[in-house]
Protein 1
Amino acid sequence: MSQRRSDQTTDSLEVAVSGGSMGGLFTGIALGRAGHDVTIYEQSTGELRGRGAGIVAQGTVRRFLERRDVAEPAEMTTTASERRFLARDGSVDTTSPDSMVFTSWDAIYRRLRDAVPDERYQTGTEVSAVDPETATAAFADGGERTADLLVAAEGGQSATREQLFPGVEPEFAEYVAWRGVVPEDELPADAVDSFDDTFTFYQGPNMLILAYFIPGDDGSVAPGERRLNWVWYDTLEDRNRTAVFTGADGVERTVTVPPGTLRDSVADRQRARAAALLPPVFTTVVEATRAPFVQAIYDLTVPEMTVDRVCLLGDAAFVARPHTAAGTAKAAGDSVRLAEALERRDSLDSALSTWNDDRTDYGTRLVHRGKRMGDERLDLGS
Ligand SMILES: Cc1cc2nc3c(=O)[nH]c(=O)nc-3n(C[C@H](O)[C@H](O)[C@H](O)COP(=O)(O)OP(=O)(O)OC[C@H]3O[C@@H](n4cnc5c(N)ncnc54)[C@H](O)[C@@H]3O)c2cc1C
């Protein structure tokens, strides 16, 4: 039974987490291992597995997985030893040594999900409203749950954030990321050679494209079984945003038109743009991609990450542009720091206040950094 906030200690808390993607799973594991009683509520009915593309496997994420025996990072990551910029004709413009580690969203999600018992992960449960004072979550199906602490890890479109901070919304940065993955064995040998062991870029006028190898669909990191992941930051120029973000199913999305949903005419137009503007090896990769997808680039900053007994965590609080390669690491860091604050402080009030100051400051700085990086890479006249 939950106590009044002023009396609440940080021992063995009952924690309800809304959202079962990266942020929710990191939280479930970090707080669960620290002795708290955590249940995750995820609105999707099916598995999230099998979705998502490549991500940079930052040290925060690798340490999280290793220290909690969730996974052995070397078994689920690929590496590059060099950063390479191509010229428009495909020749190598510059190279510099750089040690990078990559993985796929799916490889991390799978390991995290397997580390949470099924009875602690309820699917098909949407949190429709929260009462921050009593840490109560109301569910869309009419049920409710009162805990000691609610964590909303609901992503950039979080309804809990909307309830707590009406009007604080993601702001479109006026450009998009076209993305895709290609199985290594579907690429010509010279393209595989050209991307192997490198983090490869082409910076064009008002655009940037990059590529790196990630684990295969089945998680294999063996050469020949990997996938090449590419991300192409591009403005929409004179294209109509509604047209680009309306999928083949007729549904208009705000953030991502997922793989397999892009209309053929939209994908064909971007392929033609690739042939006209990119170095030949990148054109080959874009053309070889069976299910390209597109994601709008947004910035999001909240004024606070806690309101009474509710925390906003991961993308529900801050979305920094992907140039920072920090979204998953930030979600892991938010959850680790929350567990640490609860461990170090005796009162819940004081733990949440410390966590809020620490992570709000970090998130705000990260979003600024992402804006700066984006503005340097795409000349948007801002
Ligand atoms: C399927 C999927 C694929 C992704 N692929 C990539 C990728 O390839 N590369 C990359 O960099 N990032 C990817 N991301 C985004 C990445 O996970 C986040 O940027 C980052 O890791 C922070 O995660 P998050 O848990 O805060 O937010 P998100 O990953 O956005 O997850 C939010 C979760 O909350 C659930 N949810 C939302 N509202 C409610 C509610 N009211 N009640 C219950 N549940 C709710 C959503 O269904 C979702 O599962 C992906 C996200 C998803 C969901």
Protein 2
Amino acid sequence: MKALVKTKLGPDCMRYMDMPEPVPGADDIKVKIFACGICGTDIHLMHDEYPSKPPIITGHEFSGVVSEAGANVTDFKPGDRIVTLTAVDTCEECEWCRQGLRMLCPARKSVGSGCNGGFAEYVVIPAKHAFHLPDGIAMETAALCEPLACVCRSVCERASVKAGDFVLVAGAGVMAQLTAQVAMANGGVVIMTGLKNDAERFAMAKRLGVFETLYVDEGEPLARVMELTGGMGAQLAFECSGAAASAKFCLEALMKTGQYIQVAIPGKPIPFDMDMALYKEITISNSYASERTSWLIALRLLEKKLINIAPLASSILPLTEWEEGFRRTIVKEGFKVLLMPHPEDLKESE
Ligand SMILES: [Zn+2]
Ligand SMILES: [Zn+2]
């Protein structure tokens, strides 16, 4: 089968190439990939800024259809539409595994970085980590379940948004838009911040229901936040860009006793005014990808149509055009780029 492989560490490491088709074990399912989203992590992975074990088939944000189920698998059958959590290979013995915090397992191997992923025609995963895709969710949208689950971890499990809270979402990309959607589902009043070149992204945010968008590179953005929040500042700030200036703005725009939540991975140490956080009694939180509980929230929000994320799947390309997809992701063109190893499936799904 064809797959997009990180062949080695170092530059010029990505190849679209033949790989052996995976064979499911007794407890596994073999999944025919429908679409797999390109994530910022894939770009980091390509540049060795995120750990991986090459040679490895990349991609972790996918939707697919079961093509084969192992002998012991009872809850999935060929034809079932699925998505899967990413921490598919953990020790199951350590305290973190026992507590259901699989991302924290020291032996964790995640799909697309530690074990083979979704930029391929097929992938094999343990059936116990898959989720049935509820009816009414398009396969394209389903490929956004993984980033959505990560955001559900941040917003619903690692922070506490109450109805009427002012929620600052710093950034206007996919993660920020998803964060805004989930914060709004919790009753938050979202103020999204971005830069002047985020005009199109802001238009999408407005279309998807955010209360206010705010350029932080013109005018007096902090004064504007205070004006919007009755002089108090925001109850919560989700930092979704990874930029130091954005972290600083979040801290300034928060009300005393507010919550600061780091969603994006800065990728390097960034300055953070701990004195200001202390003087304002800011609670600092963050989240690392997603756990099973986060997926259950994500799928329920989608199934019950409490959020609108379909427009964020902004381009769909055949897997053969992965370089163009990576380019669009790097230059932040549109929102999520999906790659399809079987592009003919798109017509059938319409
Ligand atoms: Zn991702
Ligand atoms: Zn473990």
